[in-house]
Amino acid sequence: MTDTSSTLSQMDERSREVFRLVVEGYLETGDPVGSRTLTRSMTEKVSAATIRNVMQDLEFLGLLDSPHISAGRVPTQQGLRMFVDGLLEVRDLNQTDRENIDATVNSGDDDVGHMLDRIGSALSGATHGASLVLTPKHEAPIRHIEFVSLAADRALVVLVFADGHVENRLFTPPAGQTPSSMREAANFLNAVAEGKTLSELGRAIREQIDTHRQALNVLARELVEAGHVIWQDQGGQDERLIVRGRANLLGDSAEMAELERIRTLFDDLERKQDIANFLDLAESGEGVRIFIGSENKLFSLSGSSLVVSPYMNADRKIIGAVGVIGPTRLNYGRVVPIVDYTAQLVGKVIADRGKG
């Protein structure tokens, strides 16, 4: 794959300007941009033939493409990535967007889930895309874990947290479990879990099982391993994905192929079990990340873009994420500051409530 930063640095001023104008025109209208249109926008007065030659060079570099027989060009995924990384001018958040987000977050409702639900609707309304909000899981240290057998194929794990919060989660245990193996598994987990949050416990379980493989009863070990997904609670009530604004994407799509891609996108979202992967997208660093088309495995078939940012609790741990999905011709310059500001504000509100 071409190093986009290197490619950009090797381009002359004329090529950069032609490339920038093509991308900006495409992001604004969704239509291919032709050489005659660019002759009216270029700072340097050049002929349409000269611009066509530059466009052909950019096409050879894999940055532009000709979708139809017409002379117009559109950016490729590689071209959009280079534009976003090197030429995108992110606007300041406008006052109206800021006030709407502030009002949504600071509505006086103490329920974090309700607040994040409203945030999803506000984001989709402000950006005219679909919004994603990954709600936080409970991150207090665990005080006690207990298994309760309900039937041969059904068991309950009771999680008691240090802050008094109690959760009951149903799961299917491995076959052949006995009361003694359940007690042994619970004793093992309680020894490992002391002082750890759920996410910290998940990382510690595998290491401890490997260390104590011989000492731990086979049935108890299977029970612990089977319950590993339960500790993460992926897709459970305490960590869920809120998606708002499906109609926004459908309303902007005139072609059947585009409609089909958007249906594929929402099918992917609805089927996806490991929604916590949205955190993985953002955990490599603070701030907004932009994924274009196939750069994001989840959206590779639909060819959509995702602008996502994590939010953190008072301990600066990432506990959730907010984002916007749209076509690759998203208005990135406007969407990025909206997502960034929303994530920071949500994190501040959750951190402040945690201190109370």
TrEMBL record:
<dbReference type="InterPro" id="IPR002571">
    <property type="entry name" value="HrcA"/>
</dbReference>
<dbReference type="InterPro" id="IPR021153">
    <property type="entry name" value="HrcA_C"/>
</dbReference>
<comment type="similarity">
    <text>Belongs to the HrcA family.</text>
</comment>
<keyword id="KW-0804">Transcription</keyword>
<dbReference type="GO" id="GO:0003677">
    <property type="term" value="F:DNA binding"/>
</dbReference>
<dbReference type="InterPro" id="IPR036390">
    <property type="entry name" value="WH_DNA-bd_sf"/>
</dbReference>
<feature type="domain" description="Heat-inducible transcription repressor HrcA C-terminal">
    <location>
        <begin position="115"/>
        <end position="336"/>
    </location>
</feature>
<keyword id="KW-0678">Repressor</keyword>
<comment type="function">
    <text>Negative regulator of class I heat shock genes (grpE-dnaK-dnaJ and groELS operons). Prevents heat-shock induction of these operons.</text>
</comment>
<dbReference type="Pfam" id="PF01628">
    <property type="entry name" value="HrcA"/>
</dbReference>
<keyword id="KW-0346">Stress response</keyword>
<dbReference type="InterPro" id="IPR036388">
    <property type="entry name" value="WH-like_DNA-bd_sf"/>
</dbReference>
<protein>
    <recommendedName>
        <fullName>Heat-inducible transcription repressor HrcA</fullName>
    </recommendedName>
</protein>
<dbReference type="InterPro" id="IPR029016">
    <property type="entry name" value="GAF-like_dom_sf"/>
</dbReference>
<keyword id="KW-0805">Transcription regulation</keyword>
<dbReference type="InterPro" id="IPR023120">
    <property type="entry name" value="WHTH_transcript_rep_HrcA_IDD"/>
</dbReference>
<dbReference type="GO" id="GO:0045892">
    <property type="term" value="P:negative regulation of DNA-templated transcription"/>
</dbReference>
